[in-house]
Amino acid sequence: MRMKKKILIIEDDQEIAGAFGEFLACKNYEVLTADDGLEGLKRLEELSGKIDLILTDMVMPYVSGMGVISITKKKYPRIPVLAITGAGALPAAMAAEYHADLVMQKPIDMHQMEKIIENLIWKREGEAATESEMSVH
Fold first, then answer.
1. Residue 6: which of 15, 21, 17, 14 has the closest Cα?
2. 8 CB contacts (<8 Å, ≥6 apart)?
3. Which helix (H) or strand (E) holds 57?
4. What gap in Å lies between CA 132 and CA 12, rounded to an integer?
């Protein structure tokens, strides 16, 4: 039996977080949520980085999406980060600068988001398998 993949949603808008969470739970993901970047980073630490993907808003109180991406990529570089923004091109450019794996503009097409999440998780697993094969030889 395949384990559910864990997605951490970091979003300060409860309506958006709830919609994303419900949709992804229906797609058989284990969904964890955080109301802001600081809480999200705490959840990530509590789980020792055992998250398959982070979905983060860019503009939030306490710690922004840029902070979440930067800290995650330094401490857990293999966790894919999908950044979402409704604030225009500047946050999207900053997310790319901080090495988000992908940036999506709100409003989000849920089915497109699902495909992107699948691809990011699949890519991560493919890289992990390649690394473990290389270390065996």
1. 21
2. 32, 33, 34, 40, 43, 44, 47, 51, 53, 54, 55
3. strand 53-57
4. 37
CA 96 – CA 34 distance, rounded (Å): 22
Place of tokens 């497109």: 112
| Predicted TM-score (pTM) of this structure | 0.86
Q: Where are the alpha helices (DSSP H) in 1-137?
A: 14-26, 37-46, 65-75, 89-97, 110-136
Below-50 pLDDT ranges, the chain: 1, 132-137
pLDDT for residue 1: 46
CB atoms under 10 Å from CB of 30, counted, come to 14
Phi, psi of 40 (to 5 degrees): -60, -45
Question: At 38, which amino acid appears?
Answer: L
Structure tokens at 52: 């398959």
Task: Give 39's contacts (C-beta < 8 A, 6+ positions apart).
Answer: 10, 62
Type and span of the H or E element at 16:
helix 14-26
